[in-house]
Write a structure and sequence with these properties.
Bound molecules: adenosine-5'-triphosphate, magnesium ion
Largest sheet: 5 strands, parallel
Number of helices: 17
Strand content: 5-15%
Shape: globular
Length: 399
Amino acid sequence: MDPRTNPYAPGAGTPPPELAGRDDIMQRAAIALDRIRHGRPARSLLLMGLRGAGKTVLLNRIALDAEDAGIEACLIEAPEGRSLPSILAPALRVPLLRLDRRKAAGASTGRALRVLGSFVRGMRVRYGDLEFGVDLGSENGVADTGDLEVDLTALLVTIGESARERSTALVLLIDELQYVKEIELAALIAALHRCAQLQLPITLMGAGLPQLAGQLGEAKSYAERMFEFAEIGALDEAAARLALQAPAAALGVSFEAAALDDIYRHTQGYPYFLQTWGKYAWDVADFSPIDQKDVYEATTLVLAELDASFFRVRLDRLTPAEKAYLRAMAELGPGPHRSGDIAAELGKSVRTVAPTRAKLIAKGMVYSPAHGDTSFTVPLFDAFMRRVMPAGADDAEPG
Ligand SMILES: Nc1ncnc2c1ncn2[C@@H]1O[C@H](COP(=O)(O)OP(=O)(O)OP(=O)(O)O)[C@@H](O)[C@H]1O
Ligand SMILES: [Mg+2]
C-alpha cells in the first residue's frame, strides 16, 4: 500500500488515527470537570499505565474536550529532575491570561496573574531552576512566603476564585506525574484539597506510570479519597480491531480477520504496538485486504525496529547489574514476579539485590504492583530481554 497515505501513527504522544476503547474514560473525565465547574464535588482522574499504553494522547484529548466545553486547560509535562514550581509557573501564564480576558460583572482583573508573579518571586530563592522572569506584577502578602505548600495553596485558591467569578473552571493536566518529587506532590495535593473544600472550580487530571498510586498515598494519606485512578491498559480485542480497521477503512483498505488476530496476538492490544504493526503491515502489503502473510513479513521488520529504538533506549540507561536483574525477571516471564523468585534466579539474596531493584524503580523500568512484587513498566519487555540477552550469555553485555 502507498506509504504516503499510511494512516498509522506510532510515536510518543502522537494522536492515533482512531482513539479506540477510551470512550468511557473520556466520559468520566468530562462529567468530573462539569461537576467541578459547577462547584459540585468530584474526584479528579489520574490515568495510570505502562509505557506506550496511550496515557499522553488521552490526557491531551481530555484537555481539548475541556477547552471545547469552555474550561481553561493548563497542560504540562513533568520532566525528570525539574521542580514543580519551575514547570507550573510558566505553564500557567497563558491559561491565566485567557481566563483574565473573559469578562464578567464584578470579576477582579489581573489578580490571578499578579498572584502568579508573587508566587514566582517567593519560590525563586529555593528553586534555582525557576527561570521564569516575565513581569506579571505582584500582590503583596499573597503566595510569597517561600513555603511551597502555603504559596501553592494561595495561588490555586486565587485561580479558583477567578475561574468561579467567570463561571468556568481551570484544569491542570500534568503528564509524567510520577516524576514530581514526593514533597512537591504533597504540596500540590494539599493545595487541591483546600480548593475542593472551598468548592472552587480548579482541579488536576494527571497521567503517569503505575507506581503513581503508591507515590500519592505516601505523599498524603488522604490522596486516594481525592483521586480516581483510571487504569490505562491494553485495548481489548474489539477495540484493538477498531484501532487498526477504522483508519484503513477510511482509505478503502481492509484486513483479513486472521491478519487482525495475528496482530492482536503479537501486540496483546498495547496501543503503541498496534500503531507500529499497523504501519508496517500497511507498507509491506501490495493490495487490500492486508493478510496474514503481510503481517508475518511486517513482524520481522517491527521487531527489528522496536529492538533498535523503543526497547533499546530504555536499556541503554542501565548498568550491567540492572540489566542482569531485568534479564532474570525476563526468564520468569511477563510478570509480576516475587522479589524472592528474581533473587533466586540471580543466585543471590533478596537483600543483596534490593538496591538494584530500587534503582530500576527510580529509573521507571519496573514498579511494584503489590508488596514484594515486581513488574516491568514496558509491555513485552520480557521477550525483548530474552532476544537481546540470549540464555547462556547472561554475563555478556547486550550488543
Ligand atoms: N486508544 C488508542 N487507540 C489507538 N492508538 C492509540 C491509543 N492510545 C494511544 N495510541 C497510540 O499509542 C502510542 C503511544 O501513546 P502515548 O504516547 O499516549 O502513550 P503513553 O502511555 O503516554 O506512553 P509513555 O508512558 O511512554 O509516555 C501513540 O502512537 C498513539 O498514537
Ligand atoms: Mg506519555
